[in-house]
Amino acid sequence: MENSNNTIALLRPDGKRGTTLKTGRYKTLAEYMVNLLVSKESITFAQVLESARCDLPGWDENTAQDLLLVKLDLEARGYLHMRAPRYDRKLQFLKLIQSPFTVL
């Protein structure tokens, strides 16, 4: 997962090749997302973005894209699951299956 350049190779749930992200950035965003999912039983990715915009210092145009990449990576690694209710298939909720961190 980690290489010598202090970056993490990200996975994608569709099996396609992922990109890389700096280790510190990945850990910050992944910990934020996991903590948010632990505190809220049912949350959409749009709600994650809204919360992150208010909570994370240094929000910029790349933060939303980086959060999406981290979400996809956590999903591909089996830590997250996306589910859509029958009444609205476009509405997708995130569910934490297990934490990738031993201490939150």
Overview of this protein structure:
The chain has 104 residues and is of the alpha+beta class. It has one domain: Arc Repressor Mutant, subunit A. It has three helices and five strands. It has helices at residues 23-39, 45-55, 61-76; strands spanning 7-11, 17-22, 43-44, 80-83, 93-96. The strands form two sheets. A three-stranded antiparallel sheet has the order 3-5-4. Helix 1 packs across helix 3 (61-76). It is globular and about 45 Å long. The chain starts with 6 loop residues before the first strand and ends in an 8-residue tail after the last strand. 18% of the residues are buried.
Short description:
The chain has 104 residues and is an alpha+beta fold. It has helices spanning 23-39, 45-55, 61-76; strands at residues 7-11, 17-22, 43-44, 80-83, 93-96.
Task: Chart the SSEs and their pairings.
Layout: E1 7-11, E2 17-22, H1 23-39, E3 43-44, H2 45-55, H3 61-76, E4 80-83, E5 93-96
Antiparallel strand pairs: 1-2, 3-5, 4-5
What attributes characterize this protein structure?
single chain, alpha+beta, Arc Repressor Mutant, subunit A, two-stranded antiparallel sheet, 42% helix
CATH class: Mainly Alpha
Largest sheet: 3 strands, antiparallel
What is the CATH topology assignment?
Arc Repressor Mutant, subunit A
- Which strand order spans the largest sheet, edge to edge or round the barrel? 3-5-4
Annotation, overall tally of beta strands: 5
